Amino acid sequence: MEKKDKDKDKGYNRREFINNGVRLTLGLTVVGTGALALTRSTGKDYVWQIDPFKCTQCGRCATDCVKAESAVKCVHAYDLCGYCDLCGGYFKPGAKLETGAENQLCPTAAIQRKFIEEPFFEYIIDEELCIGCGKCVKGCAAFGNGSLQLQIRHDLCLDCNQCSIATVCPSDAISRIPANEPYIIKGDFIKNKEG
Amino acid sequence: MREKLDLNTSNIATGLLVLAGVISIGWWLAKDPVDELVTTQPGLDNRGAHTAVADIDIGAYFESMGTIESELQESWPRFRGAHFDNTSRSQVSLIESFPADGPHVMWKVELGEGHAGAAIYKGMVYVMDYDEEERADLLRCFSLVDGSELWERGYHINLKRNHGMSRTVPAVTEEHILTIGPRSHVMCVRREDGAFLWGLNVEKEYEAEIPLWYTGQCPLIDDNKAIIALGGTSLMVALDIESGEVLWETPNESGWLMSHSSILPWKFEGVKMYVYSAFGGVCGVAAEGPNAGEILWQTTAWNHQVVAPAPVCMPDGKIFLTAGYGAGAMVLQLTKSGDRFNVEVLNEYAPKEGLACEQQTPVVFDGHLLGILPKDAGPLRNQLVCVHPDDFTKTIWTSGQDKRFGLGPYMIADNKLFILSDDATLTIARPSTREYIELDSYRVLEGHDAWGPLAIADGYLVMRDSKTMVCLDLATSRQ
Questions:
Q1: Residues A33, A53: one domain?
Q2: Domain span at residue A143?
Q3: Which of A183, B158, B328, B450 lies at a 20 to 30 A Cα distance from B394?
Q4: Which of B37, B40, B213 to mutate to test the interface with A (most CBs of A within 10 A)?
């Protein structure tokens, strides 16, 4: 009886040992994979981006990107926009407030102006036409709320090891930021540096 | 037979080549290589047609909340104060530093979104305000000391927010209060009790165009006349302050438009005139005499779409004009020869090249102009600067890159500069022609866009951000 119990204990332990070992291996694999995925999604990868708080709209984003058509585009933070009839980002200073090409600041007519209701107008960026020159951003920053901003579009950016625009940016406005928060937009809907 | 076949094959090939060439040339001739381009022409924004000007029953709304007696005697009766220079002559000594927990707040009141500054008259505060719930444009009267509201007079009108709504300062005399609302509705009431006297719908009566972001012109009472710039069928009008009867109208033959700038009364070489910087040009209009209302001089050299600061006129005939949106500044020289005035441009420069202001009018201290530069002024943007009296492009001092302000107001009282930043931080500085001397600063309100002009009387400073007006007790004797 004593021997039988001893054999029973011995067999149980071996089987359990193997089972537990397999379970542990599978568990560690799952946890490890999850942890790796979590790590990747929480910002160990970085992308290039422009800090609109530092950007001085020098125009080099349009000319120094390795892509023939720059990956930098103007984006519009609508919550900051005043929807003004006289938009400093759309019109040349002193221009007539109408959509004729001679009045527009944008060299490629990439901003569409749309009447909403008196006295409000909406300004929409056509990224197909935008070359990232920043003329509209400069105009908006000088006279408006700064709702037009330059950003590197990550569907266009090649994410070079060394961004060629960053090397020439006079205000050091381009840096690596976590890939899970790839854009820096001024506006109440995101945290800003002063906040 | 074989030769014939070769000949036929050769002919077919040649024919096909010729046909392909003809088709290609035809396609080339017919195809417009730029037919996919869209020309950018006026009207692509589908701007709506101008709606008819609404009939407004000016003065019909009134609500009385009480009455008080006040022993206070000082006043800040209009835009830029009694002397049109944003400088208080009060003898009340004011603090030069704030207590640790900030200035003593007498009262605070919520207002509709806007930038309208207050006028103060013998213990009463008068401010224009748009009540979004009531859908009414109101002149509101408060007690200066405790902020209790005494009455409000106005009219119902539907307005939409457009970077704020109310943005003008009433003009107040012992007998009258004159106001102008966002859509240029002029209203005159009796000061004592707010009784309605008369109103004028400028947009309707004079076909005037309301400036972008609503009316910014502050009305003027001068010599018992209400003086209003129009920019419609007439350029300027004078009305009897008691009855509203038209006394004279200045023709607007050049079709100038109303700007945000306010009319400045000025006496030069013994001739009193009203200087006005319109959208179209700047002029001087005879203020009195048989030719009252006539244009004495004018120039279109200064012509900008958005002009908010008032002209600054110097005793030597120099007129300083400035505006935002890239306009910069211009200095005119007015001279008089016999009965004729002559005006010439002394200097014109970009905002980066000298003193320029976007919204507020510079102040004069000891013959020097002080002002805050606009955002497009390069490295000195948003800094307070002092310029040389003989050359406004020569900067004597700046507040420095660590001390930038914005579009907020500034004034001089008790030999101190009070400067309000966009975020309602109030800075006290010592006015000087040698250097920037900051004494103290404190964030008074938590809001933003604190652009409404300041008003001070009896040591009480009334200031605001976009939604809140506050009264501070700055008198040293009451600390």
A1: no
A2: 46-178
A3: B450
A4: B40
